[in-house]
Amino acid sequence: MTAHADCIFCKIIAGDIPAFKLCEDDDTLSFMDINPYNDGHCLVIPKGHYENLYAMPDDAMAAVSIATRKVAAAVNAALEPDGLNLVQANGPAAGQSVYHFHMHVFPRKTDDKAWMNWRFAPGDMDRIGQIAEQIRAHL
Ligand code: AMP
Ligand code: ZN
Question: Which residues line ligand 1 (CB under 6 A)?
Fold first, then answer.
């Protein structure tokens, strides 16, 4: 698999820097996030270096999805959090800081204030329809 010389996650995959590894298979690696928001916050990554969601081939995405479900179930069984989100960032405005695709397994506590915080206010239906048309044109 292609590694990227400056990528911290490629270095973890290669064993060049340490990590609290959880599990590994031919295509994925799971390990603890060292800046956890809550206990059990961990990451699932493809072994290939793909910068973000858009660069992910289907087979890598499928492998990460399967590993993520497995790891999330283990976190849930081990820690019994009040809830759990999967979070995945693409680009600076989304908070991406490491440019090797990763899925956050993000356990939640009631009132932990880790909000995405969008309003549940009804949108403009004409605009929603137009935007849907724009997106469909690329599917
Ligand atoms: P993001 O901001 O979505 O790109 O997430 C990157 C995540 O990687 C952050 O939550 C960091 O805490 C985490 N992280 C960065 N370096 C390491 C590392 N060496 N070991 C484990 N987690 C890391
Ligand atoms: Zn990488």
Answer: 8, 19, 33-35, 89, 95-98
pLDDT recorded at residue 31: 98
User: Domain-by-domain residue ranges, the chain?
Assistant: 8-136
Q: How confident is the model at residue 39 (pLDDT cuts 50, 70, 90)?
A: very high
Name residues whose C-beta falls within 8 Å of residue 46's C-beta, 6 or more positions apart in sequence.
27, 28, 56, 60, 63, 64, 101
pTM beyond 0.85: the answer is yes
Report the separation in Å between the CA atom of 133 and the middle of ligand 1, taken as the mean of its atom positions. Answer: 36
Q: Report yes or no: 27 and 17 within 8 Å, Cβ to Cβ.
A: no
Domain 8-136 sits in CATH 3.20.20.240: no
Does the annotation mark 102 as catalytic?
Answer: yes
